[in-house]
Amino acid sequence: MDTQGAFDSQSTIKDCATVFALSTMTSSVQVYNLSQNIQEDDLQHLQLFTEYGRLAMEEIYQKPFQTLMFLIRDWSYPYEHSYGLEGGIQFLEKRLQVKQNQHEELQNVRKHIHNCFSNLGCFLLPHPGLKVATNPSFDGRLKDIDEDFKRELQNLVPLLLAPENLVEKEISGSKVTCRDLVEYFKAYIKIYQGEELPHPKSMLQATAEANNLAAVAGARDLYCKSMEQVCGGDKPYIAPSDLERKHLDLKEVALK
């Protein structure tokens, strides 16, 4: 999920943190779209859910989030770090390096980012060109876009969207179905409706609640489908004693 475009001059810190937290907790690959560089306050936006991640790791003993991809657009320093993934990873390693002279909070954010995400990446994207940036009539024509930008975009898109690179969403180490994801959305939206940002422990509890609801829905669905095969409308008559036995057997299977 790409968060760029979600913020404007009317957005509050809570708005930004909420969008970041919701998108990170519900996506398998979070694309953090930034302009020109990674600033310190950009990393601070990650503080809320890296703290959630720290608590989650105490519960499940594994990294709670999957992939965080920094996408730096309008990169102006290709002579220091080349465009694309390779230059981006070199740049990211420098920016996320923990140093002794850093404030403790800055060190902690960097440590938590490394600990919370299974994969970290960074892609440096050149400026699309003056015709794109300054022409109010620009309509997306490729001939008006700089060649460097088009070349790097052809590298970036398959990196994220090629079938072999698509990543299934996982929560607590288990793959999430579309139906499960609805339960997680419901649980997370509840805790973000208040005036204050939720405490990371509330986020952890919401995840556990959604996890339980998704498991219940899955078990019920399995049971109903199995029973349909036994006594559905097009099935022959079955004796009550046989039906009771099948019910108990399939109930046990569904609850496993």
TrEMBL record:
Protein name: GB1/RHD3-type G domain-containing protein
Family to which the UniProt record says this protein belongs: Belongs to the TRAFAC class dynamin-like GTPase superfamily. GB1/RHD3 GTPase family.
Domain GB1/RHD3-type G: 1-165
Taxonomy of the source species: Eukaryota, Metazoa, Chordata, Craniata, Vertebrata
Catalytic reaction equation(s): GTP + H2O = GDP + phosphate + H(+)
MF (Gene Ontology): GTP binding; GTPase activity
GO CC list: endoplasmic reticulum membrane
Subcellular location: Endoplasmic reticulum membrane
Membrane disposition: Multi-pass membrane protein
Family annotation (Pfam families): GBP (PF02263)
Record key words, sorted: Endoplasmic reticulum, GTP-binding, Hydrolase, Magnesium, Membrane, Nucleotide-binding, Transmembrane, Transmembrane helix
